[in-house]
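GTP cyclohydrolase-2
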Amino acid sequence: MVEISKQANLPTQFGDFMIQSFREKKLFKGESYLLEHLVLRTIEIPENPLVRVHSECLTGDVFSSLKCDCGGELQMALKRIAKERGFLIYLRQEGRGIGLFNKVNAYALQDSGLDTIEANLALGFQEDERDYEIVRFIFDYYRLSQIRLLTNNPAKICAFKSMIKLTREPIIVECNAHNAHYLEVKKTKMGHLL
């Protein structure tokens, strides 16, 4: 079951958006919990809107961590969406779906030499535990039939192609000394289009 909040205005440094929350009850590894996803959208929506489906990364999005490209991708996406009009779907699936607590444990394993995939596997998770079914619900809710998807992730392209007509647009953030290996793993092990 999905609960949907009312819509509200959200002025940001990137532009003016409408914000709405989608609350879903999930079961993961035998535990029930709530995920409260967010949608930011421009007031005017074109026929073929620019859409970014962004998974939560508290360390990158809020604390500007240099270990990943998440915060940079989020800011780049918001700038482009404000200008070109469309949607940011912000999924509350921290750490590729393993949660913040486990993500910090994965960081500790990365500090000892494992890459992001190896760390998730060492903790007993798959390399990516995210579920995109809520995205189908959101596409349907807003009656979207086609989108320009802002992503480098082939798994997202594959998942969303079964939901909606899409074309992909790249989102490339500059590499730094702290995330170069992370980006290389995304490219070589996960097939990201970098």
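thats it. The domain at 2-93+130-190 is CATH 3.40.50.10990 (Rossmann fold). The beta strands are 2-4, 8-11, 16-28, 31-41, 50-55, 86-91, 146-150, 165-169. bye
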